[in-house]
Structure formats: structure tokens, C-alpha cells
Fold this sequence. Notes:
The radius of gyration is 17 Å and the shape is globular. It contains nine helices and five strands; from the N terminus they run H-E-H-E-H-H-H-E-H-E-H-H-E-H. Strands 2-3-1-4-5 form a five-stranded parallel β-sheet, with helices on both faces. The chain has one domain: Rossmann fold. By secondary structure, the protein is α/β, with parallel strands linked by helices. 52% of the residues lie in helices and 10% in strands. The model has no long low-confidence stretch (mean pLDDT 93). Bound molecules: shikimate-3-phosphate. Shikimate-3-phosphate (S3P) binds next to loops. Shikimate-3-phosphate binds next to loops.
Amino acid sequence: xxxxxxxxxxxxxxxxxxxxxxxxxxxxxxxxxxIGRRLAGRLDLPFVDADGEIEKxxxxxxxxxxxxxxxxxxxxxxxxxxxxxxxxxxxxxxxxGGAYIDPRTRDSxxxxxxxxxxxxxxxxxxxxxxxxxxxxxxxDGDPRTILSDLIDRRYPIYAEADxxxxxxxxxxxxxxxxxxxxxxxxLDPRPATETPPS
Length: 198
Ligand code: S3P
């Protein structure tokens, strides 16, 4: 049996993850990048932001990709980049809000990663997305109406993720604690019924 140094409490989690990345999914403003970066730090794994990788690969910002080539071209690039990132081994990977909605990407995430949905209420998403104007989907219309519509359409699909945690106005460190707890439970090899009550 592997022995884990007591000063590395998350070695067991990394061991159980094996070569699977942790993939964060959820709507714009749910905190995928901010929580992903913190979670990666706690687990001592690399953090990768899928939109950032798409921008590097394309040599353009997400906004420019939408404006110059349209959403479909962005989605095709997004799918290819995420397929590559899923093969790059253990990491915490923050995906753009539409990535997990693509059936092929969703299928690959299910097969090759463990996924965590950051679920947030509309008010929280509206407030957080108002801080940046770089999101093409929120530029044409009222952001609250658009986000509300995306909640209706996407939440049933994000619900297919392996884990879900709620995120609101608590500090990012508290949300990160919840994410770690969810991972610990999800990766526990014992059947749920055998887990002693806490
Ligand atoms: C999108 C979300 C964005 C970005 C693109 C499309 C979406 O990422 O990928 O603007 O379809 O929800 P964030 O969720 O990181 O804002």
C-alpha cells in the first residue's frame, strides 16, 4: 500500500484521481477560474483555463473569435482544445460555460475526467459577470434575461456532472473547501452507506 507523508494531506486525493483531470463546469460568473486556481493550489496540481488555451492556440481573444468567425467556429476550436487538455494528465481545468453543453465534449469529460458543477443563483451570476465586459454572449441584450435563459437551458445538462456544489456570496476559500469536500466524497472508494456519519 502507498504511504503518504502526513504533511501532504491531498496526496491521497491525487493518487485516487490518477491521470484524470478535475474539470469545472458551470455558467459564466460561477467562479470556475477563481475556484479552479485555488483548488489546484490546494491539490498541488497545475491549473489550466480552457478559454486561455483557446486564445493561445488561435492567437485571438474569445471576443475576437466570436466576432470574426462566429460562435460555431469558436465551439469547434473549444472542442479540439479541450480534447487535448483532457489527455494532458492530472490538472484542474476550468472550462468556458458552453463547453460541457457540447455533447462530444461532455462525453469525453465523462470518460476521462471527474467533473464538478459550480451552481450559482441568477443574482450572483448577474453581479459577477457585470465586472467584465469580455463575454460575447452577454453583449447583445439584457445580461439578466440572457443568464436566466441559460440557467433554464443549461442547468439540467450541468447536472450530469459527477459532483455539484453551491456557490454564492461566501468567500472563495469557503467555496474551495466545499469543492475539496465534494472531491473527497466522490473519490472515496467505500460505498456511500459504509461512510460513517460525521
Ligand atoms: C461562454 C462562456 C465563456 C466563454 C465564451 C462562451 C458560454 O467562458 O467560453 O464567452 O457559452 O457560456 P466563461 O464561462 O469562463 O465566462
